Amino acid sequence: MTDQSHPAATPTSDRWAELRTAAVDVLTEAVLYEPGGEPIDFGEFLASVLETVAANVGSVARLVEGRSRSSEAVWIHDLAGGESATLEWLAPGRTVPVVVPLNLWDLLHSNGIEEPGGPLPETLRRYRRYTAAFEAAVFAEGARLGLTVPVTVHPLTDPEMSPHAADADAIAARLRDYASAATPMALLIEDVPAED
Fold first, then answer.
1. Dihedral, 131, 86, 78, 55 alpha carbons, nearest 10
2. Rounded-to-integer distance, Cα 175 and Cα 154, Å
3. Percent helix, strand and coil across the chain, each rounded to 5?
4. Per residue in 13-41, is it b (16+ CB within 10 Å) or e — as a string?
5. For a pLDDT cut of 70, what percent of the chain falls above it?
6. Which of 25, 51, 91, 152 has its CA 20 to 30 A from that of 194?
7. Residue 30 contacts by C-beta under 8 Å, 6 or more apart in sequence?
8. With a threshold of 0.85, does the pTM exceed it?
9. CB atoms < 10 A from the CB of 184, how many?
């Protein structure tokens, strides 16, 4: 039984209680489910659920980040695939969309480039050209990972927004990092013919 005195195990809101009740109801139904008169392998069922949840949040580590050193965390980590649960292993099982943020301002500044000047239409063409190439790289890496859910690139329009919004989701971060490395910076800083 989990330690109910630990703050993470104490209901902190009505939503926490609702989620716990829903989880208990579903897991109880799974234990009692007997197709063909035989009980299911509940351990296998629970492991498959945890693997999918890990895929949906981006990694097994996200499942245990609240108490990563507890014995429960070790059990959950192992049950959800443990060290075998690489992004390549998890991605095909993901059931929720992946959103990859693209912060052009941060990209320029992290590469030591001041935002290029010039006419606004030219700047917008460069941004569109870079974004299109970035998206193509994101989609290619998503396909290579075996993602079957929608993947979208979300260009950030506020220079003050966190450039690492995807970091909590390791799958989104992987797609962002791959696309950043694969998309030439020249697309963002060099002039583009008007018909482009």
1. 30
2. 12
3. 60, 5, 35
4. eeeeeeeeeeeeeeeeeeeeeeeeeeeee
5. 83
6. 152
7. 40, 42, 45, 46
8. no
9. 10
pLDDT lower than 50: segments of the chain: 1, 4-7, 9, 196
Packing angle, helices 42-57 and 71-79, rounded to 10: 90
Q: How far apart are CA 66 and CA 63, in angstroms?
A: 8
Helices 42-57 and 14-32, packing angle to 10 deg: 140
Q: Which residues fall within 8 angstroms of residue 160, CB to CB, at 6 or more apart?
A: none
Are 104 and 188 contacting, i.e. CB atoms less than 8 angstroms apart? yes
pLDDT in tens, 17-69: 999 999 999 999 999 999 888 999 999 999 999 999 999 999 988 888 877 67
Q: 63 with 50: CB under 8 angstroms?
A: yes
If you search the block for the tokens 């008007």, which residue do you land on?
A: 194
The pLDDT assigned to 118 comes to 66
